[in-house]
Amino acid sequence: MLETLISSKTRIKLLLKFFLNAQAKGYLRSLEQEFGESTNAIRLELNKFEEAGMLSSEQEGNKKVFSANRKHPLFDNLHHLVMKYVGLDRIVDNITERLGEVEAVYLVGDYAEGRDSGIIDLFVLAPQLNIEYLINLLAKAEEEIERKIRYVHFKTQFEIQKLLDQQSHLLIWEA
User: Fold this and answer.
1) Does residue 91 have a pLDDT over 80?
2) E strands along 1-54, which residues?
């Protein structure tokens, strides 16, 4: 879908990096390693996003570190567009509407860091959960969005908190 509208693969990667998780930050060399693309192509796109006001930057030592400008009028629209592109909106709707006592759903792993690896990792916080039904829902969602979905079920906030403290995460739904 996005590839039809946006022909630059680098631009799509930057959109995912900065607008899937608004807390994501990156500098030129780290993005080069992460994307496997030339610094020239990345620099051009970063400059375009910064000139448009969609990204902001700050100097950290000798590095220019970029992040999403959450105050930009299109930030929310871009965030929702990227969520739809990845398929997170459908996953969350299916999980929360049909499984009952779900308290929260967290995105962890590559996508929480803004990398499109093709594997979506979720932490599901729910005292009661119909595991068989969840597996069925996720299998259907995987077909729809053409990505692998993995999940870990937690019954209490205490159980989940230790792992959340150790890695990048994004709360994508909360009761």
Assistant:
1) no
2) 25-27
CA 60/CA 57 separation, integer angstroms:
9
Looking at CATH, the fold of the domain delimited by 87-174 is given as: Beta Polymerase; domain 2 (3.30.460)
Domain ranges in the chain?
A: 2-68, 87-174
- Alpha carbon distance 26, 34 (integer Å): 10
How high is the pLDDT of residue 128? 85
Instruction: List Cβ neighbours of 27 (8 Å cut-off, separation of 6 or more).
Output: 60, 63, 64, 65, 66
Record the pTM. 0.65
Q: What is d(CA 164, CA 66) in angstroms, rounded to the nearest whole number?
A: 24
Cα(40)–Cα(35) distance, integer angstroms: 12
Residue by residue, DSSP assigns 60-113 as: ETTEEEEEE-TTSTTHHHHHHHHHHHHTHHHHHHHHHHHSS---EEEEESTGGG
Give the integer Cα–Cα distance in Å for 12 and 81. Answer: 11
Over residues 35-60, the mean pLDDT reads: 92
Confidence of residue 44 (pLDDT cuts 50, 70, 90): very high
Nearest to 14 by CA among 44, 120, 167, 60: 44
What dotted CATH number matches 2-68?
Answer: 1.10.10.10
Is residue 138 classed as helix, strand or coil in its secondary structure? helix
